[in-house]
Amino acid sequence: MVVLVVMALSTTFLLAQEKGEMAAGLNLSYGSKTGYTNIGIGAKFQYNITDNLRIEPSATYFLKKDYVSMWDANANVHYLFGLSDSFRLYPLAGVALVGVKVGVGEYSASDSKFGFNVGAGAEYLLSETLALNLEIKYQIVTDLDRPVFSLGLAYKF
């Protein structure tokens, strides 16, 4: 009986996506930490290595607020769990390059640092080609670490 339950659950998870599936999309993000909280606009590309394993390179530009602007470039891996035909959950892990620029008048300073991402997300299929996702990741970057919340839309092809 236990073997049948495990097989049934495994089959459900394996139906989550198909190997080779690709998607491209846009994100609206919100990064928050004392001293630098701002809204970002980003783009992403997704590629399924296996039925459940997906890579996602992405980039986000965070709008200037209080003389501070930021950007990030990420390479994350998602492990997809299909809870239904249209709803998936996934943990994520990856690497990040985060940049910050502070500018007042003609004076400015900038810096960029490498770090790591950990987090989780949920994806809801609106149709066979459109998916809506909500994600939270924590960027672990020296002096720039913070949580980033994202709402995105992806076109699958």
What does this 3D model show about the protein?
By secondary structure, the protein is mainly β. The protein contains one helix and nine strands. The chain has a single domain (2-156), classed as Porin, CATH 2.40.160.20. It is 8% helix and 68% strand. The chain has an eight-stranded antiparallel β-barrel.
Distance between the termini: 39 Å
- Calculate Rg over CA atoms: 18 Å
- Tell me the β content: over 45%
Order of secondary-structure elements: HEEEEEEEEE
* Low-confidence parts: 1-16
Instruction: Give the class-level CATH name.
Output: Mainly Beta
- Overall average pLDDT: 89
**What is the number of domains?**
1
Q: In CATH terms, what is the architecture?
A: Beta Barrel
Strand order of the largest sheet: 1-2-3-4-6-7-8-9
Main β-sheet description:
8 strands, antiparallel, barrel
The helix tally amounts to 1
* Strand-pairing-aware structural class: mainly beta
Shape: elongated
The count of β-strands is: 9
Helical content stands at: under 10%
CATH topology: the name is Porin
List the helices and strands and how they pair.
Blueprint (H helix, E strand, L loop, with lengths): L1 H13 L7 E10 L6 E11 L4 E13 L2 E12 L1 E2 L4 E18 L2 E19 L4 E11 L5 E11 L1
Antiparallel strand pairs: 1-2, 1-9, 2-3, 3-4, 4-6, 5-6, 6-7, 7-8, 8-9
In short:
With 157 residues, the protein is mainly beta.
Summarize this structure as a short list of keywords or feature phrases.
157 residues, mainly beta, Porin, 8-stranded antiparallel beta barrel, elongated
